[in-house]
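[agent] plan:
  1. take the single chain provided in the ticket
  2. run structure prediction with default settings
  3. attach structure tokens to the ticket
  4. add a short note for the reviewer (M.T.)
[agent] executing step 1
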Amino acid sequence: MVKTEHVDQTFRQQNKSLLNYLRKQVPLEQAEDILQDVFIQFFNSYEQIRSLENISAWLYKTAVNRIIDLKRKKKPRLFSEKELKSSLNSDEVLYLEDVLPALNDGPEEDLFRKLIWQEIEDALDELPEEQREVFVLHEFENRSFQEISRITGEKINTLISRKRYAVLYLREKLKELYQQLKS
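[agent] step 2 finished; step 3 output follows
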């Protein structure tokens, strides 16, 4: 079978189900863009992947990778209106309200709040990619570990461990900031 015929046939067979899957993950416009990217990559990589037993699995894995790429490009809403679920030490839980000024305060508090968010973003940027990804997906996008496991292909215990290391690191990085704000 000629390359274009096989790609066309695969597109007709997989198009709707893959688009439906993508629409559950991202808005329709983004889903359509990702679908187009996946099939462009399929066409361009056809010689390397045509012998795969399950091209459908390759298409879905490529789509998942595109979703992850898209989410990485977006700046996450860091801790917005959430509590920091980790404690600074075993008996003290840090709530976002304890650190951030009230939302209706003036320009000084707004600047202060921006500085705090910058510290949080910087701390997240210092994390290894795998830890940051799990932390962002679980904390900011409210995804379950089971869902993250489906997206990344990693075992749930691995994801839990990565998030734990991310929380420990963030806790340590933000401890100094918290203590400065407290005094």
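[agent] step 4 note for reviewer: The CA atoms of residues 101 and 110 lie 8 Å apart.
[agent] ticket updated
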